[in-house]
Every structure is written in C-alpha cells, then in structure tokens.
Design goal:
71% helix, elongated, mainly alpha, homodimer
Chain lengths: 217, 217
C-alpha cells in the first residue's frame, strides 16, 4: 500500500505511530504484556488489526517502542531540569532528582512498567533499560563535574549502582508511600555523595568534588 | 494416570520435578523465555511433551519455578555464610557479600536471568524478585543489629535501595568485569554503611551501629 505522495503520507504515518504509542503507554501501564491482546489494542485504538500491524509489525515491536518512549520521556524530563552551566553540582543533582520524582509521581504506572518490564532476557528491552542507565551515568558524571575521573570503571560502576538504588527506592516508594518525597530525595542525594565518597577512597582525585563549594583543580 | 502407591509415586514426582528444574536453570540461562519452546525443553529432558506438562502445566509455570529456585539458592548461599551470633555486623556483611559474589561468579547466567527476568509485569515473577529483596532487607536488618529501627520505613527503603545497588553493580560487573571482585565488595559494603548513615540523619538511633566496635544501647 505505498502512497503516491511520500512526504505527506510519511508525516501521517509518524503522527499515527505517535498517537498509538501514547495509547500504548496507557494500555501497558494498565495491563501486562501477556494479557493485552493485539485485538484489544486495535479495539482501543479504533483501528483494524491489519492497520495496527502496518504501524507495528508485532505486539513485541509495539511494546518495545512504548518502553523506549517512556525511557526517552524520563531522560528528557530530567535533562531539562538540569540544563545549566552555572549552578553548583549538588543543586543540579537536587533539581534532577526533583524532576525524576515528578515523573515517578505523575506517571507511576508507566514508570513501573518501564522498570519492571524486561520480558525475560529480551535483548531490545534490555538495551533500552541499560541504555537509560548509561545515559544517566554519563549525565551524572558530566553534571557533577567528575571530569576525567567520571570515565573510570569504578566511579561509573558506583554511579550505575546508584541509579539502581534510585530505581528500587522509587518503585517501593510508589507502591508503599511510607515516607515523604522530600525525605526520599534527600536519601537519594546523600547516598550518591556517600557512594562517590566510597568509590573515591580508591580514586582520590574525586574527593575534592564532593564538598559543595569546591572547584575542580 | 494416578498411581496406586501414592507415597512412592509422590517421591518420584518431586525428584523428577527437581531434575527438571536443574535443567531449567541451564536452559533459561542459555536461551530467552520466548525463544525456548516446550518442544526444545522436552527434548533436552529426554521426555515427551505430555509428560513435561504433567510436571509443569505451562512453560510459564516451569519458568517461574526455575526463577524461584535460583532465588532460593541465592538466599541460601548467603544465609549459610552469615549464620553466626558472635561475629560483628561488618564482618557478617563482608561474609554475606563474599557468598553473594561467589554465587554471581559461579552462576552468572542464572543470576542475570533471575534479575533481568520480569516477563513484563508478570505478577508471580515480580513476587519472587520483590520477595527476594524483602528477605535480604529482613536479614540485613537483623544481622546488622538494626533492631527496632530496622523496621522503620526509611531504613527499610535505604536497605532495599542498597539491594538494588548490589544487583545493578553485580550485573555490570558480570558483563564488563572492569574492576576486581575485592574492590566491588568494598564498594558495596562502604555504600551500605554510607546509605545507612544518610538514613540515620533522619533516625538518629542508628548512628551508633555504624562504627565497627559499638554496641547497641
């Protein structure tokens, strides 16, 4: 079914895909991958199954694309909050965490879906999850001014582990809601400073960066 | 196909299930849930598909049972290493981490399967993963002598987040192997002490427990 006017048609396809992905975020947040059938998705979208397959060749493709969209949104939300060359690292960290927890609060089910997903060892979904962690690690290393040290394997592992800390505590916070958002954000930022301290015992140059008003030598 | 001698037959069923679960650990570590067919599992086990269904009603049941077995083994391995009433908390922590990393090293693929699993938001698999984290949190609170404070929501969240830290750094370590096992174990234990310190700023009674030779008042 190729169209005659590729540019116009192409735009239509992209727009429709975007709409379907928005819908996917809602659908997969409310029902699990396995229980949600292609029929149910097509019905919710008000289109035929055949047309749905035109946009996404399989349910898995559709699912992977929605997970990728959720990951992009989370990354963008925190990116916007931390775009500044003037603020000190710890201030940027607090802004980033605030934007992160905003996302968790507003899109709780989508966030849980993103992180609890995985679909076995599905390589594409793993790539999205690991890629999101990598992106956070890169950005943390840059925004916190870790400079060259931020490229070292130990610090990267510590930052990555901290992203895991943030993920697990956010998921627990979402489902249990036993402490305030402010206390959670403080726990996260203090744990980051602390784990970087622990890592810096093995790479001393970092220690300087951990005191709020220090500048990089 | 009910047997006439239920006791004997019952034993046989349990043994056969146990054998099949051992096989499952290998199979699911080597291939993803989706790509591994019931036919391939039955072939690998040397039994008919019908007989396999006799032990596990579905591929999902089989998979869930192998994930549960992997989780039990991980918990047991670390439990044995930390059964002592005499050693100080930090010594127990180091022993527990050493046993944990032994498991990660020896059963890398199984460990990765356990944690990267999830199968979407499959509730049973989630229950295993969350239950394993809960078990670690309970045990940490007890072995570290956090006593009554260890029941508080903030400390539990911090401990749970640290389990996430351990999971994510272990997975990265497995796939990248950029730092030594000893340095990883140190990073983990120092981060735990640090995150408990951070949490204790909000619940002061805990601070006492973090210095190696302190005793509980």
């Amino acid at each position: 079914m190729p169209g005659r006017a590729p540019n116009k048609r192409r735009l239509g396809v992209d727009e429709r895909r975007a709409e379907l992905l928005e819908l996917g975020l809602e659908l997969f947040a409310a029902a699990s991958y396995e229980t949600l059938s292609i029929d149910a998705i097509a019905r919710a979208a008000g289109i035929s199954k055949g047309l749905l397959y035109h946009y996404f060749p399989s349910k898995r493709d559709y699912y992977t694309a929605t997970v990728r969209l959720a990951a992009d949104r989370l990354l963008n939300a925190t990116l916007e909050a931390t775009e500044s060359d003037e603020l000190p690292p710890l201030e940027l960290l607090q802004r980033g965490l605030s934007a992160y927890l905003d996302f968790v609060e507003r899109h709780g089910q989508t966030y849980a879906t993103l992180l609890r997903t995985g679909i076995g060892t599905d390589p594409e979904i793993l790539t999205v999850i690991e890629g999101t962690r990598d992106a956070f690690v890169d950005r943390l290393a840059e925004r916190l001014g870790l400079g060259h040290e931020g490229q070292g394997p130990l610090l990267r592992l510590a930052l990555r582990g901290w992203v895991g800390f943030v993920e697990v505590t956010s998921l627990s916070w979402l489902s249990e809601n036993t402490i305030s958002r402010e206390v959670l954000a403080e726990l996260m930022s203090e744990t980051l400073v602390a784990t970087l301290s622990a890592a810096s015992l093995k790479s001393p140059q970092v220690t300087d960066l951990l005191t709020p008003d220090s500048s990089i030598e």
